[in-house]
Amino acid sequence: METKKGKLFVISGSSGVGKGTLLKKLIEKNPQLEVSISATTRLPRPGEVDGINYFFVSKEEFLKEVENSEFLEWAEFNGNYYGTRQAWVERNINKGKNLILEIETKGALQIKKKLPDSVLIFILPPSMEELEHRLRGRNTEDEETIQGRLHEVRREIECSKNYDYTVVNDDLDRAIIELEKIIKAVIR
Ligand code: 5GP
């Protein structure tokens, strides 16, 4: 009997929206979901491990993979390149695995074009005011950086109109339940 193919869930959300915590909890509660590990040219942050958080590669290595059409999608974000390797996605989907890709909007829309069956979910902040408050609360960035991030957030929220679902992260547990409902309805 042929194995039923897995589904591809693409999750995006602007910085400061709490997407990291949300996904971490979602995966802990649903070990049947596999998370894709992207390749990136950005430097590891403290605590990040190569092969776990990302595959950290040089710009030359990345561009060689682009040239060899190894990415299902890739995009430049904040001056760095990020990409999803096609072979890994295909191998796992064919095994029947349900995959989560946590990527930004340009890459997400490329995936939807190539794989119309993929499910795009955008995580929204409760409000722009709340998001601005969270970004400023980090206290690590100057005004120009914060304004740049807010501009990017508005652009991404505009893009979310092309997504299949939006989930508001007003309350962590509630948002997870909503995400689980969407995923269960799709893989049923
Ligand atoms: P960070 O540098 O904060 O880890 O990620 C920056 C942005 O890149 C986030 O919006 C994240 O979703 C996105 N991203 C991570 N991996 C990929 C990828 O493989 N492709 C694309 N298009 N975006 C990615």
- Strand line-up across the major sheet: 2-7-1-8-9
Helicity level = 40-55%
Largest sheet: 5 strands, parallel
The small-molecule ligands in this entry are: guanosine-5'-monophosphate
Shape: globular
C-alpha Rg (nearest Å): 17 Å
- Measured between the Cα atoms of the first and last residue, the distance is 19 Å
| Proportion of strand residues | 15-25%
* Helical segment count: 7
In total, the number of strands is: 9
Task: Explain what the structure shows.
With 188 residues, this protein is an alpha/beta fold. The protein has helices at 19-29, 59-67, 86-94, 105-114, 128-137, 143-159, 172-187; strands at residues 8-13, 33-35, 39-40, 55-56, 71-77, 80-85, 98-102, 119-124, 165-168. Strand 5 and strand 6 form a beta hairpin. The chain is globular, with a radius of gyration of 17 Å. The two termini are 19 Å apart. Bound molecules: guanosine-5'-monophosphate. Guanosine-5'-monophosphate binds next to strand 5 and strand 6.
